[in-house]
Amino acid sequence: MKVSIRHIGPSMIQQMQYPCNECKGTGETINDRDRCPQCKGDKVSQEKKVLEVFVEKGMQNQQKITFPGEADEAPDTTTGDIVFVLQLKEHPKFKRKAEDLFVEHTLSLTEALCGFQFVLTHLDGRQLLIKSNPGEVVKPDSFKAINDEGMPMYQRPFMKGKLYIHFTVEFPDSLNPNQVKDLEAALPAKPSSQLTDMELDECEETTLHDVNMEEENRRKEQQAQQEAYDEDDDMPGGAQRVQCAQQ
Fold first, then answer.
1. Are residues 112 and 136 in contact, defined by beta-carbon separation less than 8 angstroms?
2. Which ranges of the chain would DSSP assign to H, the alpha helix?
3. Which of 3, 141, 153, 228 has its CA 20 to 30 A from that of 176?
4. Are 167 and 103 contacting, i.e. CB atoms less than 8 angstroms apart?
């Protein structure tokens, strides 16, 4: 190290310490005639090396693959490792959770009630025939599972997780009177909730309308904020809201 002393005022000095320019803080110098022509005395030479990374079946997101002692080398230091961290790329159709796969599928109301079948192209290109059992009714937001069609398990490549299919059901916007009669004849009878004429006379008729709950909640929040703001303006005695001090 080099030490420099500088006078900065009467009876005041400043002392600074910094690495030597010749040895770069190593405490060792090499004559020019003794320097290696390849590294020029730095004791380190640059070279390219190709590492082949093998991703095993079933490896998880953020799992690490380590190459011990393959990092940059330097004199008098322990060579580190090169670590590759896997990042899972999203698939447009399949979602992975550990060893299981999830896929979304939409059924029409007719398919949900009367049966369905469709072909699902798997990640490896195989065509899977998916169909319901005779007489089976699929309810909205229900799940079905297929064993051994999920992801391979890590270090157990012959074992696989499950493939889950999440079903959503599309309902028609409306039905004509003939369709309503046909459905009533085919489906189980309605619960016995018929009202008498006297009961109907005592009731007030209402009208249902469609509503978007997200918009309703947003509107109520804005209304509550406006009411709170108006209450602050109407405080007794002409008091004003306290403003935050500027720092």
1. no
2. 109-114, 177-186, 197-201, 213-233
3. 141
4. no
Per-residue pLDDT, 82? 94
Per this entry, what is the length of the chain?
247
Q: Hey, is 133 helix, strand or coil?
A: coil
Residue for token digits 């798997």?
A: 122
Q: State the Cα–Cα distance between residues 218 and 209, nearest whole angstrom.
A: 18
For the chain, give every domain's residue range: 56-89, 94-170
Q: What is the mean pLDDT of residues 159-171?
A: 94
Task: Assign 3-state DSSP to the chain and report helix, strand, coil percentages, each to 5.
Answer: 20, 25, 55
- What is d(CA 64, CA 86) in angstroms, rounded to the nearest whole number? 6
- Class level of CATH domain 94-170: mainly beta
Question: What pLDDT does 50 receive?
Answer: 92
